[in-house]
Amino acid sequence: MSHDYKFEGWLGKDKESAKGNMVWGDFPHVKPFEETDVDIQITHCGICGSDVHTLSSGWGPTTYPCCVGHEIVGKAVRVGSKVERGIKVGDRVGVGAQNSSCLKPDCEGCSDKLENYCQHIVTTFGDKYPDGSITYGGYADYHRCPSHFVFKIPDGIASEDAAPMLCGGVTLYSPLVVNGCGPGKKVGM
C-alpha cells in the first residue's frame, strides 16, 4: 500500500473545542515512522470523558491543536520490520490510552510489564514523544504508534465493541485481576 496518506482529524484549537467547536485539519509534528511502528487506518474510536477533560484543559493546560480519542480500532496499513506481536498489514488492531514508555530494563514499571507506571509514559493524544513529535488521537483518519502498544483485535469482537474495551473495559478489568476477583465473588463497579 502506498504511504502517501495524510494524518488529519478533528482538532481542538482551544478550550472552547470541548463544546463541539472542533475543526478538521492536518496534524503538525507527526512522529517520524520507525521500524517498530504501526500506522493504523482508523475505522472506529470510542468516546471517553478524558477527551472532554483534555479538550477543555480540565486536567491542566492542553497543548493545542489537539486531536483526542484513545480507544482506537482500525486496519494496520504500514508495519515496520521490527514490530512486536506479529502484526501484519491488513490486521485489525487497536490502541488504548498509551502510545509509548521507555521500555528500559532498569525502569521499575516497564521491567514489571506495568508500562502505564513508567515515568516516561507517552499518552495516545496531546502528548510529546522524546523527539518532540506530538501524539494525535483517534478522531482522525490515521494513527501512528509503536507496536508494543498495538493489539490485534480477535475476529469474534466487533470493532464498535472492541474500541471502548481499550480504555473503559481495561479500567474495569484490571482491578478485578489485581484483587483476585472471580466466579462467586461480589464486586462493585
TrEMBL record:
Tree of life domain: Eukaryota
Keywords: Metal-binding, Oxidoreductase, Zinc
Xref: Gene3D superfamilies: Medium-chain alcohol dehydrogenases, catalytic domain, NAD(P)-binding Rossmann-like Domain
Pfam families per record: ADH_N
Residue span(s) of domain Alcohol dehydrogenase-like N-terminal: 35-155
Keyword Hydrolase found: no
Protein name: Alcohol dehydrogenase-like N-terminal domain-containing protein
Annotated source species: Friedmanniomyces endolithicus
Family matches, as InterPro entries: ADH-like_N, ADH_Zn_CS, CAD-like, GroES-like_sf
Secretion signal, residue range per the UniProt entry: none
GO molecular function: oxidoreductase activity, acting on the CH-OH group of donors, NAD or NADP as acceptor; zinc ion binding
